[in-house]
Amino acid sequence: MPYIQFDGPVLSKEKKAELVEEFTKVSREVLNMPEQAFTVIIRENESDNVGVGGKLLSELHK
Amino acid sequence: MPYIQFDGPVLSKEKKAELVEEFTKVSREVLNMPEQAFTVIIRENESDNVGVGGKLLSELHK
Amino acid sequence: MPYIQFDGPVLSKEKKAELVEEFTKVSREVLNMPEQAFTVIIRENESDNVGVGGKLLSELHK
Amino acid sequence: MPYIQFDGPVLSKEKKAELVEEFTKVSREVLNMPEQAFTVIIRENESDNVGVGGKLLSELHK
Amino acid sequence: MPYIQFDGPVLSKEKKAELVEEFTKVSREVLNMPEQAFTVIIRENESDNVGVGGKLLSELHK
Amino acid sequence: MPYIQFDGPVLSKEKKAELVEEFTKVSREVLNMPEQAFTVIIRENESDNVGVGGKLLSELHK
Description:
The structure is a homohexamer.
Chain A lengths: L2 E6 L4 H19 L7 E6 L5 E3 L2 E2 H4 L2
Parallel strand pairs in A: 1-2
Antiparallel strand pairs in A: 3-4
């Protein structure tokens, strides 16, 4: 059941694979549960869709 | 208010309509509330964005 | 992988079990996937923590 | 840390910027915390992916 | 349909009511939709359950 | 901005601290971003509130 949602920027397939592998490894060790129990979802967000400190990231990173 | 989020694969419009209709029917009966109270969101995820057991679904389903 | 999150009021164990069973049955039939693939999380919210139309549910349901 | 997720329709960049700015301003005042502490994510949903009262929005708004 | 989730610290009922009212007012004006369309959920998180920069908030705020 | 939500069972403070530390370390290395950019939320779920394969975890783990 444990379910990990990663909300971040647009990423390459390789980086997504690395996050999935590493998050699962960490979770398996900390919770002492089999790898198959873990699901990871990577949500990629455009910089027009994220704001920090009241400003869109697309504006902050011009 | 009840709000149902379905995270799954890419689906046809017909299947999304069916999930919305059936989830709402089930919720209405179990909670004994009017259908209008229920919102369903279908989040479609590419197989590069989901990992199970430490591997991307796109790798598992090659 | 499919993952269903139900955000709603505080519920009895029986009603939570019924939602889990029925949501899984519906999903299994629509997606034609084995039941084991589906995870359902029931998030119970106090009426002080939910607002509709700008008002807390606890105020609306006095 | 406070994190605000807005699930709604597809929006223009100007409207997304306005939501980010105003949600951050409200949160800063109510919680009395610096603006930098707040993250806002705007999730845009197609009308085929949202259901209210058991029907897809795309069907309701034909 | 628009649905706003606020993830933050434990708050008083008054502050939750204020967030609901103000988020709804902002959303109504920006999207030009009736207030009744908006749902707000306030998720309160203990400082043991939130980490920033790799540390639990409870440790950072000792 | 990156934001990591971990949905799982009830955990000790030590295990929550470990997940926060390790998820942040992994994310920092994969995304090459400063640790301060990452927020982790640990959502603990009772076994009456989670279903897998159509059954509540509390029933499966009797």
